[in-house]
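Figure 6 in text form: structure in, sequence out.
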């Protein structure tokens, strides 16, 4: 993402994500490899995501990030892809908002109360200042009001 922000993609190999539908279960498996030679980073994220039935206790998204030794090819780290996904996705949204939102945006409204709702709340309140914050009661963030 740092390289992306610098608009320097010359050293990054990052094919478009491959997605395998898991049709009977309304799900997908996504595989997201990338190689940044200059930084010695060879990795892939593997993520499953599902449209769950209402009231299901199963998670909608599960992910793992594997880091490899670029020269020798062995795995050097197995990382929590859900934590990385939470921060990465919210960070990308904040960059988009920074570039696209009207200058006098004073109200933050978060829909949903899952992982992304929480990480977006954290990142957006860190990067921007809002006069009002609206969201779900179940998101339970300290400054957040809610509509019943
Ligand atoms: N573009 C990207 O890179 C990424 C995209 N995503 C997408 O972001 C979305 C949220 O992901 P995440 O936060 O991890 O998921 P979670 O499962 O943690 O949260 C989902 C939220 O959506 C609510 N919800 C689910 N179904 C309905 C419905 N029918 N009506 C109203 N609310 C509903 C849930 O409510 P309740 O708790 O009451 O069930 C919950 O608050 C997903 O669509 C996911 O695919 C996620 C990660 C990365
Ligand atoms: O890229 C990701 O990570 C995800 N994309 C779609 C929904 C789940 C996670």
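Output sequence:
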């Amino acid at each position: 993402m740092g390289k992306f922000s610098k608009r320097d993609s010359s050293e990054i190999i990052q094919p478009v994500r491959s997605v395998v539908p898991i049709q009977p279960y309304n799900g997908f498996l996504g595989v997201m490899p990338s190689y940044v030679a200059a930084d010695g980073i060879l990795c892939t994220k593997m993520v499953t995501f599902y449209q769950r039935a209402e009231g299901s206790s199963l998670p909608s998204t599960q992910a793992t990030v594997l880091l490899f030794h670029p020269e020798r090819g062995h795995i050097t780290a197995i990382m929590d892809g859900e934590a990385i996904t939470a921060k990465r996705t919210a960070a990308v949204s904040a960059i988009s908002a920074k570039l696209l939102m009207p200058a006098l945006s004073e109200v933050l409204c978060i829909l949903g109360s899952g992982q992304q709702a929480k990480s977006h709340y954290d990142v957006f309140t860190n990067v921007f200042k809002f006069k009002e914050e609206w969201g779900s009661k179940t998101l339970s963030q300290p400054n957040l009001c809610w509509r019943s």
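Caption detail: The mean pLDDT is 91.
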